[in-house]
Amino acid sequence: QMQMQESGPGLVKPSETLSLTCTVSGGSIRSDNYWWGWIRQSPGKGLEWIGIVFYSGSIYYSTSLRGRVTISVDTSKNQFSLKLTSVTAADTAVYYCARQFAYGKWYLDLWGRGALVTVSS
Amino acid sequence: QSALTQPPSVSGSLGQSVTISCTGTISDIGSNNVVSWYQQAPGTAPKVIIYEVNNRPSGVPDRFSGSKSGNTASLTISGLQAEDEADYFCGSRTGDSTLIFGGGTKLTVL
Question: Angle at CA B55, nearest 5°, toward B50 and B57?
Fold first, then answer.
């Protein structure tokens, strides 16, 4: 059964770059059925969709984060990654990686456990 | 783009039904049938319970149902059980190919 796991630093300094990787196990990231995405949740707040990547490299980004965010995929490692530049305290959140159905279905059916990233000096 | 609008909290007694609304605009909920709903228990990742307005993934009880009218989607939970107590989020595709969520609704089972 497919699983997803986020990894990366739990503490990032203001103005620096947040970097996270999601490792997919139990199945291939090279699937025509899914996109691979990042979602975050600030403490006590709602969900915010960051963006998705297809194994071919096609990408969609949130309009609010476009310009600071980069999502990439490494099919050889069955991983995809998130980079968010110029972080501030407002970027402190639990970051989830998730699988999003393709073919226009736009829902997330498999999630990682989440990784808390704190932005602080 | 602003988040979809959900009531911050709803409550219901064991065995009763509750409905959670999710209001968007013509640019998101009103323009497609790809509304989804997620259940999130404390300290856990969200879990999809409804997709494409009114479809349930395998394993989700039929007590959960979804609907949509105009720019508003709704989630109804019938026969409330104690384990339904959680946060619920709606989500919708937008016209510029992004996904937008609601602010979340905390369900309390009395």
Answer: 65
- pLDDT on residue A44: 81
Most B CBs within 10 A among A35, A47, A71, hence the mutation to make, goes to A47
Phi, psi of A81 (to 5 degrees): -135, 160
Whole-angstrom distance, CA of residue B38 vs CA of residue A91? 22
User: How far is A46 from A56, CA to CA, in rounded Å?
Assistant: 30
Report the candidate in A83, A109, A93 with the shortest Cα–Cα distance to residue A46. Answer: A93
CA distances from A82 to A72, A85, B21 (A): 7, 10, 32
Asked if residue A7 lies in contact with residue A20, where contact means CB atoms within 8 angstroms, the answer is: yes
Rounded to 5 degrees, φ, ψ at A4 are -135, 140
> Are the C-beta atoms of B38 and B51 separated by less than 8 Å?
no
CA–CA gap between residue B13 and residue A121 (Å, rounded)? 46
**A108: nearest CA in chain B?**
B48
As given in the structure block, the two tokens for residue A112 are: 């990682």
What average pLDDT does the segment B74-81 reach?
Answer: 98
Could you give the 3-state DSSP secondary structure of residue B103?
coil
Contacts of A37 in chain B (CB under 8 A): 99
Quote the distance between the C-alpha of residue A29 and its chain's center. Answer: 14
* Digit-coded pLDDT (tens) for A48-85: 999 999 999 999 999 999 999 999 999 999 999 999 99
Closest residue to B57, CB basis, from A48, A109, A111: A109
